[in-house]
Every structure is written in C-alpha cells, then in structure tokens.
Amino acid sequence: MLNLFLLQTLNGLQFGILLFLVAAGLTLIFGIMDLINLAHGVLYMVGAYLAATFTAYTGDFFLGLAIALPVALAFGILLERLIFQRLYERDHLDQVLATFGLILILNEGVKILWGAAPLSVPIPDMLAGSIPLIGNLRYPLFRLVIIGAGLATALGLYLLVHHTRIGMLLRAGASNGPIVSALGVDIKRLFMLVFGLGAMLAALAGALVAPILSVEPGMGDSILILTFVVIVIGGVGSIRGAFVAAILVGLVDTLGRTFGPILLRTLMDPSAASQTGRTLAPMLIYILMAAVLFLRPTGLFPARAAAR
Strand, helix or coil at 140? Predict the structure, then answer.
C-alpha cells in the first residue's frame, strides 16, 4: 500500500506540473491582460503536434523539442497580432465567443494538416525505462524528467517575474496597465511578449506529454477546464498560486481516483464502493475549488498579495 501511495503521489505531482505549465501562461494572460482565452488549450495541442512533427523529421526528441518551442512562440505572437490584440478592449463575452471560434478553427486545422488519427512520439532511448526509488519500487525515468523540467520552469518563471525588469513591468501592468503605459512603457509590445510566453509554456506542456499520451485533435479541450480550476483556486494573476493550486489539483485528482474506492470499501460493499468511487472521483477537484472559495473567495494567493 505504501508503494502504491508513493507511486500515485509521483503521478499526481507529474500531472500537477503539466497543469502548472498550461496554467502559468493563462494566468499571465488572464491576470495581466484581462483576456479570457478559451483557445489556450489548443496551444497545448499545437505544441504536442509540433513536437511530434519535428521529432519525426529530425529523429531526435530533444532536437524536435528545441525546434518546436520557438515555432510555438512565433505562432503565439502571430495569433496575438492577428486576432487577440483586437479583443483587449472588448468585453468578456466577445472574448469568449471569439476564442471559442478559434478552438473550432484550430481543431479542424489540425485535422486537415495531420489527419484525425492519433500520432505517437517515442520516448527517447536515454530516458526510457525506470529507476529504483525505495525497495522494489521503480518509477519511469521520463516522468521524473517531466517533473524536473516543470520545477525548473517554475523556478525560471519566479526569477523572471520577481527579479528582472520585465517581471517588474509585468507586475506593474497587472496592477495598473494604463499608468504603466502612461510612464512610457510600450504596453502593446509587453502584451505581445506575455502572450507569446504563455503560448510557449502551453506548447512545452504538450510537447513533454506527447511521448506518454496520444497526440490527437481536441486533446487540449479537457485540460483547459482543469486549468481554469487551477487559476481560480490559486488566485487570478498569481504564478505562485497557480503552482500551488496545480500541485493540489494533480494530487487530489490522482489520489482520489485511486484511493477513493479503497476508502469507501470500509463503509460499503465492494461493488457499491467501486461505483460510488468512480462517480465521486471526477468531482473531487470541484469540491476542492468550492472549499477554497468558501474560505478564501479570491483564491489561495491573490495577485495583489503575490506582488507584495
């Protein structure tokens, strides 16, 4: 039982890290630009497809990843210039409708370019296999690399936001964009960079998950819902909140699905416990969100507190 708990805890941590990579970009866009971007999930999908394409073309996952990320950054900036900059002054309903339309267009575009059949990306040879942890417990090396890459990205974001001039402008823009613009800062260029960075982070999550999941159209839709849950729990505009909330959601979702039915067997017969556990498991993260909002309506780490 201890080995199963450790294994599922690592799985939950890895899932939470992926959620953070997607949520971090959306947090920056939502918190600073006040833009509701429902199409952020498709950028995760595009990252996975770019990684699959360039890995197949070069024969090397790392080289494919190194090419995919700048392409994703350029794609994000292109979208911002062509579409999103026209939405900044619109109300949230217009933003929701426009970005929902973009979801449909990009999902169909992916089917036209790559086909509807799922793609697979092989795990690099040097990261294949598993390593021993405790006793006879082993864990896939590639999943540990995903955790390490996510933690390194979180550290890099922390340093960028809190210890650089760009980060200072981002935090100032989140607090009062018009004043920052009045002080001579090119707020349009700042928004473009933020959007490109957010797109690249979502693409990084998609590229990292490509070797362990099928790359297929619509793969970004389900993770988008969880990403908004993470942002609400963590506090809108807070990178620290997004990190903590993503880890919480990943652990609660993974551990709940595994141990929920086991705990329920102590209260009811096995078949009823299994059925009830399967029903309750998908609801756990929403119960967590309701509990957090009841205690802290602005989330765990609201942006205004995080900036101090």
Answer: strand
Contact 29, 198 (CB under 8 A): yes
**CB 27 within 8 Å of CB 237:** yes
pTM over 0.70: yes
The stretches in the chain having pLDDT less than 70 are 174-175, 177, 303-308
Helix, strand or coil for residue 135?
coil
Length of the chain: 308
Strand partners, 140: 130
Greatest CA separation for the chain: 68
Q: Would you list the DSSP string of 31-68?
A: HHH----TTHHHHHHHHHHHHHHHHHHHS-HHHHHHHH
d(CA 52, CA 117): 13
Output phi, psi for 132, to 5 deg. -75, 140
Q: What are phi and psi of 140, to 5 degrees?
A: -60, 130
Report the pLDDT value the prediction gives residue 181, as an integer from 0 to 100: 73
Q: Which residues contact 105 (CB under 8 A, 6 or more apart)?
A: none
Specify whether the CB–CB gap between 246 and 23 falls below 8 A. Answer: yes
Tokens of 252: 């609660």
Q: CA-CA distances (angstroms) from residue 274 to 6, 11, 277?
A: 22, 21, 5
